[in-house]
Amino acid sequence: MTKQIVVLISGSGSNLQALIDAQQQDCLGGHISLVVSNKKNAYGLTRAANADIPTAVRTLKEYRDAGKSREDFDRDLAEFIVSDYAPDLIVLAGWMHILSPAFIDRFRGRIINLHPALPGELDGAHAIDRAYDEFKAGSRSRTGVMVHYVIPEVDKGAPILVEEIPCKEGDSLEDLENRIHAVEHHILPKAVKLVLSGNAKSAE
CB within 10 Å: which end of the chain, N or C, has fewer? Predict the structure, then answer.
């Protein structure tokens, strides 16, 4: 039976495109059954539509405007995904919303995230910018990319795949970003396939 994947995005969806390409080449180990964005204008929604993948938009602002909480948003999002799609795996691919236990506890061990840093380093937002600033200050010579399981503590879940990336003399921020994104695009599909095949390390 084909494993079902739900992908959560917030932006351009270049990592989503890497997943779509892997699926079309039969290299993903599963089928993307839904793409959810928390931004109405995210280009990733167009990428999904071009690949005939169903999409949904859920924004926190709508909940805030209605006097509801972040936990309400997360709980309802989890319920929508479970009741309509029942995925084997949820992939956060540039999802810029910190999920609360109201969501995570429904899918514990079945949510993975892509983060442009090495385990234990540069947790949270703007990791590439921060790595570059440290490199320019002389305190960093390498950074990396990891795919990890999602737990309530941001970017602290057990790593699935990790790849180190050198910071090179003369690098601009764009140079470093391009090298990181190239690694992201090949490491994320590999991690998805690893988890769905049962060959990844456990989430514990």
Answer: N
Name the burial class of residue 197, with classes exposed (0-12), middle (13-18) and buried (19+) by CB atoms within 10 angstroms of its CB. exposed
115 part of the active site: yes
Using the predicted structure, report yes or no on whether residue 199 has a pLDDT greater than 90.
Answer: no
Tokens at 158, concatenated: 């057990």
Q: Is the pTM of this model over 0.90?
A: yes
Residues 43-78: tens digit of each pLDDT: 999 999 999 999 999 999 999 989 899 999 999 999
| pLDDT over threshold 80, residue 203 | no
Specify which residues 34 forms β-bridges with.
Answer: 6
- Is 157 exposed, middle or buried (CB count within 10 Å of its CB: 0-12, 13-18, 19+)? buried
- DSSP type of residue 62: H
For 106-160, the pLDDT digits (tens) are: 999 999 999 999 999 999 999 999 999 999 999 999 999 999 999 999 989 999 9
CA distance 93 to 31: 15
Query: 185 with 18: CB under 8 angstroms?
Result: yes
Strand segments, DSSP code E, in the chain are 4-9, 31-37, 55-57, 89-92, 111-115, 142-149, 159-166
Please give the Cα distance from 177 to 129 (Å, whole number).
9
Neighbour count for residue 30 (Cβ, 10 Å): 21
**Candidate list 115, 126, 148, 181, residue with the active-site label:** 115
